[in-house]
Structure formats: C-alpha cells, structure tokens
Write a structure and sequence with these properties.
By secondary structure, this protein is mainly α. It contains 3 helices and no strands. Helix 1 packs across helix 3 and helix 2 runs antiparallel to helix 3. The longest helix is centred in the first third of the chain and has 35 residues. The model has no long low-confidence stretch (mean pLDDT 92).
C-alpha cells in the first residue's frame, strides 16, 4: 500500500509541475497575442485541443471525462490570463 501511495504522490507532483508549465507557456503566448493584437481566446483552437486529447487518450479515463478535465484546465488558465490582462490595463 505504501508503494502505491508514494507512486500516486509522485504522479501528483508531476501533474502540478506540468500544469504550472502549461500555464506559464499560455501566459507567454498571451503576452505575444496582446502585443500582436490577436484575441486571447480562440474557440476553434480550444476545440482542436479537446478533440486531440480525446483521440490520444489511452484510458482508463473515459474520453468524455478527459475532455471535461482539459476543459476545466483551459478555463482556469484562461481566468489567469483575463485577470492578468485586466490588471495590466489598470
């Protein structure tokens, strides 16, 4: 049991690191988009990401659940971008 919990802790640690890396990349891209006058939110790109995630999902998580997870991740990271944008406008 201890080994399973240690491995779950390791995976959680890696997930946190990767989510923050993803958020950092999105922030950098957001800065680029702002400077270039490109809208921050691209619903077509978001749908591409969600479709790709479902296609590449090997399971056991259901494709629909994986889409839900990524949708939440993208929404929360977009919230950071919106807040950052509003803060920089002040």
């Amino acid at each position: 049991m201890k080994t399973f919990r240690e491995r779950v802790d390791e995976v959680d640690h890696e997930l946190v690191r990767l989510l923050n890396e993803r958020a950092q990349l999105v922030q950098e891209m957001g800065s680029y988009k702002q400077e270039a006058g490109i809208p921050l939110f691209d619903p077509r790109r978001e749908e591409e990401i969600l479709s790709k995630v479902a296609e590449e999902n090997p399971g056991p998580i259901f494709d629909s659940s994986m889409r839900d997870i990524f949708e939440l991740i993208m929404h929360r990271i977009r919230d950071i971008e919106i807040q950052r944008s509003e803060f920089s406008d002040q």
